[in-house]
Amino acid sequence: MEAAAEPGNLAGIRHIILVLSGKGGVGKSTISTELALALRHAGKKVGILDVDLCGPSIPRMFGAQGRAVHQCDRGWAPVFLDREQSISLMSVGFLLEKPDEAVVWRGPKKNALIKQFVSDVAWGELDYLVVDTPPGTSDEHMATIEALRPYQPLGALVVTTPQAVSVGDVRRELTFCRKTGVRVMGVVENMSGFTCPHCTVSPGGCRGTEAAPDRWGPWVALGSLPSPRSAPASSPGAAGRSWPGSPGCPS
Amino acid sequence: MEEVPHDCPGADSAQAGRGASCQGCPNQRLCASGAGATPDPAIEEIKEKMKTVKHKILVLSGKGGVGKSTFSAHLAHGLAEDENTQIALLDIDICGPSIPKIMGLEGEQVHQSGSGWSPVYVEDNLGVMSVGFLLSSPDDAVIWRGPKKNGMIKQFLRDVDWGEVDYLIVDTPPGTSDEHLSVVQYLAAARIDGAVIITTPQEVSLQDVRKEINFCRKVKLPIIGVVENMSGFICPKCKKESQIFPPTTGGAELMCQDLEVPLLGRVPLDPLIGKNCDKGQSFFIDAPDSPATLAYRSIIQRIQEFCDLRQSEEENLINS
User: Which residues are involved in binding [4Fe-4S] cluster 1 (chain B) (predicted)?
Assistant: First the structure.
């Protein structure tokens, strides 16, 4: 019989935030990373749980590829980025023997690992746990929400880009949140625009998000992409640029 | 507790339920009883159905948001420009079906006839199927676990009345999971020509795409080649190129060299692509001279050549 999740491993976490999107490639992992770095900058202790089992991006975002996960007496020790343990990470990326190894699992096996990630990682005392998710509304999302429910997550940030295909998936994700009882803290529109570094023209882009209804909650539009000269967060080990805290996050 | 995750051996393998990696899996008892060992009769049914489909192409990527659906749609549009070629576009992204929007078919519904489900036709020679056509509202979320998604994919392959088709293009969600395993499994007897794998230049995409390439090799799916999308941005005003997603680790070109797969081409980022997708129109009509259009056309031609070569190799094999 499966034992109930020990209260110990998540009991020391003050706030849990999910980063969701129906759509892939909108910047969930990037936003999760930037959010964690911004919270650390504000003096908080942050953990990131990466439940994208097929495409785990979090290790590379922090330049932590190749780090190993060790066991401790309370379970799995997360990967700490620094001596102060101000940022800790857990991802299936740390469990793969080779970085190019594909995790070719069906739903039940994914669900089992996610349950372990939630119950068996010894996070210790954290101000925030940011949960980075894969795109969609399927096994990983349901398993994560069911496993986290006893710990009352603060809510979800839903990430989109301006294109209508992204907004279409956001609508579905918001329905998912409603049906699973997850509070939506707000929607983040990423890649809102681009300024050509040569002539500083901002060519018009898609405007799918302009029709977003108020019932979607607070809306944060992240401005133009950085100039190509500055390293985007998706480059290995890039220090996070300063990012205003989401209006939904308590201070 | 597992230290390192091992692959599920597969419900139909001899090790099902018995392997070391089965410990802790909720389906362990079911698999160990041998329930998964009987081949699914749908595989033969789908093989029969696919006899009228000449070429089957999967569009894959480990990474989300790289342009799989955009590419699938434009591959379909490009091939369908020849009125004598019959094209079918199947969207198996159950949770995030983008194809209806990109093809300008939002709000369309699927009809049933005596011979199965009818695809929705964009042109006389271009039919489309997606779970999006089965939803009654754009807000409807498909919150399904793996087995239910697999059932839908089975129905799409077995019950849609495609008719005589020259090219069936299958657009997939990101990842290497249920949908991908199912489509490969169900089409196993029907022979897939190959997979086109989409990436963007940056390492965070390439690392997922390498996994996808390994997935294809694991399931013995031929790889037609890789397309590097959003490869450079040409400013519509000054025409100068900048890199929005810098290929800091050599981009798709180096990855393809390392893994010995063909690079079919690079498609630059043209803001008109996104705009046309939003409107549900073919980008080729709006921007026939864009470098992106030219890149697409060259890639489509290489895909056709690959399929023709495979077909003549098979015919030679049969006749020899």
Answer: 8, 22, 25, 31
Which of B12, B22, B207, B223 would best serve as a mutation to test chain A binding (most A beta carbons within 10 A)? B207
Quick check: helix, strand or coil at residue B172?
coil
Q: What CA–CA distance (Å, rounded) separates B301 from B272?
A: 22
Domain co-membership, B127 together with B19: no
Question: Which stretches in chain B have pLDDT values below 50?
Answer: 1-6
Question: What pLDDT does residue A247 have?
Answer: 30
Nearest-CA residue of chain B relative to A201?
Answer: B237
pLDDT interval class at A34 (50, 70, 90) = very high
Q: Are residues B93 and B13 in the same domain?
A: no
Beta bridge partners of B118: B111
What's the CATH code of the domain at B113?
3.40.50.300
pLDDT, average across residues A234-241: 35
Contact criterion met (CB below 8 Å) for A22 and B95: yes
Whether B229 and B71 have beta carbons less than 8 Å apart is answered as yes
- Full residue range of the structural domain in which residue B7 is found: 1-37
Rounded to a whole number of angstroms, the distance from the CA of A147 to the nearest CA of chain B is 15
**∠ CA(A135), CA(A138), CA(A139), 5° rounding?**
115
Residue B25 and residue B115 in one domain = no
Angstroms from A96 CA to nearest CA on chain B: 7
Q: B64 and B17: one domain? A: no
- Same domain for B292 and B225: yes
